[in-house]
Design goal:
Blueprint lengths: L1 H17 L3 H15 L7 H9 L1 E3 L7 E3 L7 H13 L3 H22 L4 H22 L4 H15 L3 H14 L4 H17 L4 H17 L2 H8 L5 H12 L9 H14 L4 H5 L1 H17 L4 H7 L1 H19 L9 H5 L1 H4 L7 H6 L4
Antiparallel strand pairs: 1-2
Helix pairs in contact: 1-6, 2-5, 2-6, 4-8, 5-6, 5-7, 6-17, 7-8, 7-9, 9-10, 10-15, 13-15, 13-17, 15-17
Length: about 350
């Protein structure tokens, strides 16, 4: 992981030279980590065994199941089962999954008409934390995250049916995105058909929905989602999240403080105006989720993954571009130099930091 840490710093150092072409550099070099990083804890072994033992079963919900202990949606087993015929090796599946997810995410940002150089920097900012989590340890999160980005993009372009298709596919692969999907759909529905451009009213309605989610009993929530094809999986995951260890996550401060402040100070920026609705809905959702579940870091992180990942990359890239569209990425280097202090387990810097007296 020390090499991975240096790779992250390299990306921001060479961005002034490559610009939007940094995406191609990442597409060509990042697979090396997926192929050769050591098998570590987290969920890596569970997903590997699930992939290695996936098989066709006409009686399965979507014709595929796995002989592993992994609890996953039918869509995930179908997706991995089909790819397994072409790519039997799990490491190479990770490469395929990464390249497909990267392509879908870049497509979503392109549909939103974000400047292509900024798209390149957004992707680069996802590499240090987001990519290692969803591309290596928990690959089931990658494809639906990119599909959610596409769903949001097409809702923003008023192509709701196409957006709903991507949202549906995302929920069939990973049910943790169901909550954000429902809230986003309701927001756009109220904003387009009932509230015109009065964003604050739509946010109030979204706040009521999220607060209800936080304070309703799990059993009542399960009744609401029982009609979904993945309702059994959602049921088990909700009980699991509800019983997870409580605590506060430091990244929640970004959602509660930094992102809202960014929206306030940059609301008159031309770039912000182009994506106003997307940024408002994601900021409001992330803020509300992290307030409602402030004592449960696990559930807050899971439910706000779409908004947190998008906002983290967009806010950093926009800030860098305000400094300079070409060399602004260099101002991000000090931030990412500090990653071992924020995530010592992730970057395996525990012993180093202990010797230096930081832990």
């Amino acid at each position: 992981m020390h090499i991975y840490y240096l790779y992250n710093l390299l990306l921001f150092s060479i961005f002034p030279l490559l610009g939007r072409r940094i995406i191609y550099f990442i597409a060509l070099t990042y697979p090396l980590f997926l192929l050769y990083l050591p098998e570590t804890g987290y969920d890596f072994s569970y997903y590997k065994r699930a992939y290695d033992t996936v098989y066709f079963d006409v009686n399965a919900p979507l014709f595929f199941r796995s002989a592993s202990e992994l609890t996953a949606e039918p869509g995930w087993f179908t997706y991995t089962g089909l790819i397994h015929y072409l790519v039997p090796d799990y490491r190479w599946f990770l490469v395929f999954n990464f390249l497909l997810s990267l392509t879908l995410a870049v497509k979503a940002f392109t549909v939103l008409k974000i400047d292509q150089d900024k798209v390149g920097l957004m992707i680069a900012t996802m590499v240090p934390i987001s990519f290692i989590t969803i591309m290596f340890w928990s690959p089931r999160s990658a494809i639906p995250l990119a599909l959610c980005f596409l769903g949001i993009a097409y809702f923003e372009k008023r192509r709701e049916l196409l957006g709903l298709l991507f949202f549906f596919l995302a929920s069939m692969i990973h049910s943790q995105y169901v909550v954000v999907i429902v809230v986003i759909c309701l927001f756009y529905f109220f904003r387009r058909y009932l509230l015109a451009k009065f964003n604050i009213s739509a946010i109030i309605l979204m706040a009521i929905a999220v607060l209800a989610l936080g304070y309703l009993a799990i059993d009542y929530i399960l009744v609401i989602i029982s009609f979904l094809p993945t309702s059994a999986i959602i049921s088990s995951k909700l009980h699991y999240l509800d019983s997870a260890n409580s605590g506060f996550r430091m990244s929640g401060l970004l959602s509660i403080v930094i992102y809202p402040l960014f929206m306030i100070f940059f609301r008159k920026n031309p770039e912000f105006r182009k994506l106003e609705t997307v940024l408002v809905v994601l900021t409001a959702f992330s803020l509300l989720i992290n307030i409602v579940f402030i004592s449960n870091a696990h559930i807050a992180g899971r439910l706000s993954r779409v908004s947190d990942y998008f906002l983290f990359s967009y806010v950093l890239a926009t800030t860098a571009f305000l400094v300079s569209p070409r060399i602004g990425s260099l101002v991000l280097i000090p931030l990412f130099i500090g990653l071992p202090f924020l995530f010592p387990d992730l970057y395996e810097f525990q012993e180093v930091l202990e010797k230096l007296g930081f832990l």
